[in-house]
């Protein structure tokens, strides 16, 4: 069935053009999904604009997908037409390596198949993401959206949500822990909610004094303006965990000094070389830990949805008409969204 | 009682001069020790030669001390004259902060009192270390040397030993784990022995192809020449733990790539800025951990001695006449010792 799709155009041409792609016929383990909502992740912008030099055009971004099942393959037992489901950053993996066996498909030794700009492991076609009417995904990589969740607000849980939830759970954040959240964008605001739901006392670090009230409204019991040295020094040695959502280079050393002994600084946004350089003494003195974490595996992705349903947590979203995607990208780049754009895919069908 | 002491001379004067210091009268919790052996740690050289700009002369280095109890204070019940005992890198701490309460005195929030070039918490005098006939230390910072251990070979366990033992235990290295040990000096050769005694399969990383046989003789089941890119690439993703004993700047990225997902790289030697810069992606992809560790607390320092007694582990030492200390320092700087110099303090008394 050919379908209308939106894609962000190549290089300098910032236009939105309709494009027709063929979704594959159902394999036995496939779930066909009519997409209702798709979150806008900063990664989408990097791919749409080929910031990382690896984009294969045409690209259909989007990996925070929520929709309804329209059909299932012959071997699918966990989903049926009408189910509200989600798809995140991955649509396949090797399934046999140690990480895959452990349900940590994001660390698949052969590399997971990304939801877009990836390569299908069977027919080797390029994968297309969620800025689209429909998607077909193997059932292992489909999750159920609990009824208690608003489907639009659930979409960003598939990337921004799981990315912050997974390390907080992996490192066992618990009641009474002092957790710092660095950055208050799509990821950071979810980190605040999760840490608070786990019983932690949450401090938000922001460079912007004007965000202090916002951070408190999100649940932070303390807000530290990271450019204020006196505030930073007063907090030395007091944190158990630091959830660092900043995706650009920044000095980690002042934050490491804020950790208690045995404290852990978790990077979920930074993929660059650490500059200014990490001071190794900040790890050795205090037996501190610097760790990284990438989205989450499929069992835990279901887990974050269930956790949100149980705790009444949702992402704060601004609904978006897909015809405004390029303006939305510019606003995301400026951090001008509270806190995640979600495309209402009905706006695509109007054009279809 | 005034005693003869050796000290490495200031700055450029590489001479050995006798110096008389007064050891304090016993406080109720004090243990007076006649020193028989003292290991030579690279840190001693840094302090003797004021490499870190913080030396207070005269300095008496030495924090791998083994000797016999000569007297105890009125409140000491755990030691009696004649006991063979050890003193490591610390002689006091605040005793009331969280780390101290947890037996992690090395992370004392007020800073532990170092065995030499530290400041006594009571009389504010400078502390003098183990290149000496005697030392007086509060009982909390004295450990028992098990009878099964050769006292000379036990001395380096107080620093080189505990420094490598502590993180292997803290991170739960166990039978079947694949452990890499980077560097094969005083610390590294102990790391090999401990990891092997814990049941791990040990690989040694060395820049020197001529050290391959040595490393195997120490118990390594595999040796990788770290400058050989093909060998490094072949080992990608295969290690659970990396014990990094290198005290100078080196590129961590090729080693991080050798870790499995959830693997841990432990720094015990490096205190400098990490250059070339750490690539954050190496932590995020694979959920890898970069951690630091500093010596060990007092309960664990007793623990490493007991572990060595139980497992027949000793440090490989070269006995040293203290009159040759300056030559020994030059050899340590060149890595020309297998694997730790230990001063026979009887050679000091000859001069006394």
TrEMBL record, chains A, B:
Molecular-function GO terms, alphabetical: oxidoreductase activity
Stated name of the protein: NAD(P)-dependent alcohol dehydrogenase
Keywords recorded for this protein, A-Z: Metal-binding, Oxidoreductase, Zinc
Organism classification: Bacteria, Pseudomonadati, Pseudomonadota, Gammaproteobacteria, Chromatiales
Domain Enoyl reductase (ER): 9-343
Keyword Metal-binding: yes
Recorded family membership: Belongs to the zinc-containing alcohol dehydrogenase family.
Cofactor(s) demanded: Zn(2+)
Superkingdom, taxonomy of origin: Bacteria
EC number, UniProt record: 1.1.-.-
């Amino acid at each position: 069935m050919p379908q209308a799709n939106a894609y962000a155009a190549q290089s300098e041409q910032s236009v939105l053009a309709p494009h027709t792609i063929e979704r594959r016929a159902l394999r036995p383990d496939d779930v066909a999904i009519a997409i209702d909502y798709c979150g806008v992740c900063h990664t989408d912008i990097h791919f749409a604009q080929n910031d990382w030099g690896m984009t294969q055009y045409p690209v259909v971004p989007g990996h925070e997908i929520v929709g309804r099942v329209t059909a299932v393959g012959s071997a699918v037992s966990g989903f049926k037409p009408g189910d509200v489901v989600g798809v995140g950053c991955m649509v396949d993996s090797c399934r046999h390596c140690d990480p895959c066996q452990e349900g940590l498909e994001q660390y698949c030794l052969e590399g997971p198949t990304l939801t877009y700009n990836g390569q299908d492991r069977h027919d080797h076609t390029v994968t297309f993401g969620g800025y689209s009417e429909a998607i077909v995904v193997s059932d292992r990589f489909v999750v159920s959206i609990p009824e208690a969740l608003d489907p639009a607000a659930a979409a960003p849980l598939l990337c921004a949500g799981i990315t912050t939830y997974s390390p907080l759970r992996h490192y066992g954040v618990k009641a009474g822990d002092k957790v710092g959240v660095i950055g208050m964008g799509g990821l950071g605001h979810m980190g605040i909610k999760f840490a608070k739901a786990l019983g932690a006392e949450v401090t938000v670090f922001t460079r912007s004094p004007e965000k202090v009230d916002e951070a408190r409204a999100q649940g932070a019991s303390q807000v530290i303006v990271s450019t204020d040295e006196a505030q930073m020094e007063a907090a030395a040695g007091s944190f158990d965990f630091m959830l660092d959502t900043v995706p650009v280079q920044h000095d980690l050393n002042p934050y490491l000094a804020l950790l208690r002994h045995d404290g852990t600084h978790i990077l979920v946004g930074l993929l660059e070389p650490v500059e200014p350089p990490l001071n190794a003494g900040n790890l050795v003195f205090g037996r501190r830990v610097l760790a990284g974490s990438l989205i989450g595996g499929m069992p835990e992705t279901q887990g974050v949805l269930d956790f949100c349903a149980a705790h009444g947590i949702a992402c704060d979203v601004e609904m978006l008409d897909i015809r405004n995607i390029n303006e939305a990208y510019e606003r995301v780049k400026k951090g001008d969204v509270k806190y995640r754009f979600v495309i209402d895919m009905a706006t695509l069908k109007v054009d279809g």
